[in-house]
Each structure stands twice: as C-alpha cells, then as structure tokens.
Amino acid sequence: MHTTLADFIATTAAGEEASEILRKCVHCGFCNATCPTYRLLGDELDGPRGRIYQIKEMLEGAEPAASVLQHLDRCLGCRACETTCPSGVEYGKLLDTGRELAEQRVQRGRWSQLQRRVLRWMFPFPLRIAPWLRLAMRVRPLLPRVLAAHVPPVLTPPGAWPEARHARRMVALAGCVQSVATPATSAAAARVLDRSGISLVTAPAAGCCGALSHHLAAREEGLDFARRNIDAWIPLLEAGAEAVVASASGCGLHLRDYGRLLASDAAYAEKAARVSAAVRDLTEVVPLPAAGASPQRLRVAVHTPCTLQHGQHLGGRVEALLRATGCELLPVADAGTCCGSAGSYSLLQSELSSQLGDARARALQAGAPDVVVTANVGCQLQLAGRCTAPVRHWIEVLDEATRVL
Asked: Is 206:228 a contact under the CB 8 Å cutoff?
C-alpha cells in the first residue's frame, strides 16, 4: 500500500514503523473474515482493512472525521487479523499509532472522557478497586447485566503461597486487577512451580503492566507504569531470577513490548529490552506433569485468549498441560474467536462485547463441560457471568490435579 506520510510524523520512529507496516498491506481483505466486529456489523470501516485506510489517511495529514474515533474504539485489538494476514501486517502496532493520533485530533465527548479517566484511575490499582468490587458483589443482583456479568459471585480463596526455598527463582507479575478479582491464580501458579523446584516471588514495588492506559491512548501514563515495573524487576533479574512470569496473557503480551515502547528512552531502553527478553507466559515455564492421570478426570472446555494465541502465538500449550493430567478436553467451535472482553472494551463497548461473550459462552458450554478454563483475567470474568459451568484459570485446575500426582 503506497503511503506518503505528512511532515509531522514522516521522520519520527512511529512514522517509520507505520510506513513499513502499511507497505506490507495488499488490501486483500482476508483479515475481515476473522475480524469479530466486521462479522457482527458488516461494515468495512469496522474491519481491519477499513481501519487501516482510516489510519493511513490521518498519517498522510487528512483531518479525521469524528466517526474515526468510533471505528477505532470498536476494535477489540484481538489480532486475529494478524494471524490471518498472508503479508504479515502488524496491525496491532498500527492501531496503537492510529488511536493516539485520533485521540489528539478528534474531540471526545465529555462522558466518554470521564469513563476513560475513571477506568484509568481505578483498575490499575488493587487498593482502589478492592472496596468497589466488594460492594459490587453485595449488590450484584441489583446491577445492570453489563456490570453484573463482570462481578464474580464469590472470590476463590488464594490458599497458601509457598515460601521461597529453591535456588531457581522467577518473578510474578502480581500487582494488577487479577490480584483482587481472581486472587487464586497467582497463588496456584506459585504452588505448581514450587513442586517443580522453582520459587515464584513478587516485587512489592511493581504494579499494573500499563496495558490499560496504553490501549486507552494514555501513552505516557502507560510508560510510567512500565518504568516502575522495570525498576522493581531489574534488581531481581540481576540477582539471578530467571524470568518475569505473567499468568494473565494480556499482561504478558504487553510486557513483551516494553523494549519497543521504551526504545527511544535513553535511561530505560536497555533495561526495558532486558525485561522484555525475560518475560515468559506461565504456559512456557510450567513443565508437563509427570505421567499418570489425576483421579479428577474433568471434562474441560478451553478458551484460549486472543492475547495468548494471536498475540504471543502460544496456542495449544494450555491443552497440552491439562491433557497430561488426564483431563478430557472437549472440542469447542470457533476456537480462534474473541470472547469480547479485551480489557476495558467490555465496559466501553458493552453491546458488542455482550454479543461476543454470549456467543463464546454458548460454544464453550455445548459439550457440557465440568469446567471452562482460560488464561486471562478479563476473559475469565467475561465468561464467568455467562457460563453455567465454573470458569477458572487453567493453573487452578492444574494445581488441584498435580497435588495428587
């Protein structure tokens, strides 16, 4: 796709990256076939190809219409289009640039601005969100469906976190909304790794990965979260920690991008690249369980988050780990389809998100599973309010199964 960038961005790093991405696009339209919003709405402007054209026009200096914000906001950022694209177009990077430009050049409505500010103020901070979550749980039956669907009816107790006793150590990303909404996840990961001779430790000074701010076009705020985490983790990596482990696939995908996002920051570029290189998804560090089936022969339906399969290209790993314990994995239709969570998307684009969530829940429950598992806190909350079977992080099921192996 031929592009002539406007002077304001032509010689910047973002402009050079965008130009390279656009050159790869042959506007074939294969991406639309797997785009959740295009499949729902049938509007070219709500598919990857149409969004690429809108971003291209802004990069070339055209004044964007107010509708551009709406079309970019409707994108889930699921990256299914990247998996489908025969030319290797890195749409996710282009989307980040496009959203930032649109935010700068189109006046967002006051209500929309307020929503985003509230989300950015609350969700990255466990101490802020915890009291609101407890209140929401108490009044859950009274909440609108769009909100109630994201409020867990009960919180699974985390259980014991093993003390650090092994020579091998890894650092857990534990300072986000997951620690409040699904507190059992990180503790289960620590127990499973402990049985494998690895101690999972935390860095109290670390916090949110910054993905929420980044995807809401608050770039500098997101980079500040990244810098805080880098400062907290570098000493642990220098002391011998093998990896930074993310049990939420969405966070893990963003952590892998720290090096690129901070490449122009002289004080952090090298450290950010080191952290990115050390990031591992939990599926990459948990070894296959020893041979032998668990007596809990569960019928399991697996929802693989978009951030795991399309973003990190780690699809199939959850299934392999659960299969090794003797779980029966049920076939699930449209396995590559987004559940509609996408971080803050489920609150900001509730109608589209609900349609996708309901469809995904139906597909997951078609085989009457004992449990539905996933690998991301947002997906877990999105599906838990829609599935009759319990929805859990896969590491919790693995933790219970391997206790008796």
From this structure: yes
Residue 296 phi/psi, 5-degree rounding, is -85, 80
> Tens digits of per-residue pLDDT, 347-397?
999 999 999 999 999 999 999 999 999 999 999 999 998 999 999 999 999
Specify if 29 maps to a domain: yes
Which CATH number is 366's domain given?
Answer: 3.40.50.1860
Domain count within the chain? 2
Single-letter amino acid code for the residue at 356 = L
Is 328 contained in some domain? yes
The residues with which 300 forms a beta bridge, in sequence order, are: 329, 371
pLDDT confidence tier of residue 292, bands split at 50, 70 and 90: low
Look up the CATH number of the domain holding residue 36: 1.10.1060.10
> Is residue 270 helix, strand or coil?
helix
Q: What Rg, from alpha-carbon coordinates, does the chain have?
A: 21
* Listed residues 88, 105, 122: the one ending a domain: 105
What percent of the chain clears pLDDT 90, i.e. is strictly above it? 77
Q: What is the pLDDT of residues 144-167, one digit of tens each?
A: 877 787 788 778 888 999 999 999
Q: What's the pLDDT at 404?
A: 60
Tell me which residue range forms the domain holding 327. Answer: 299-402
Tell me whether residue 189 is in a domain: no
**Which tens digits make up the pLDDT trace of 200-241?**
999 989 999 999 999 998 999 999 999 999 999 999 999 999
Half-sphere CA count of 193, side-chain side, radius 13 A:
33
Residue whose structure tokens are 């296959």: 288
Residue after which a domain boundary falls, among 76, 105, 134: 105
* Secondary structure of 204-257 in HEC code, one letter for each residue: CCCCCCCHHHHHCCCHHHHHHHHHHHHHHHHHHHHCCCCCEEECCHHHHHHHCC
DSSP annotation of 258 reads: H
Give the N- to C-terminal CA distance of the chain in Å, as an integer. Answer: 55
Distance of CA 69 to the CA centre of its chain: 22
Tell me how far CA of residue 376 lies from CA of 98, 145, 242, 283, 308, in angstroms.
26, 21, 22, 12, 9
Strand order in the sheet with 168-172: 198-202, 168-172, 244-246, 279-281
Q: Which residues contact 270 (CB under 8 A, 6 or more apart)?
A: none
Helix axes 269-278, 219-238, angle to 10 degrees: 70
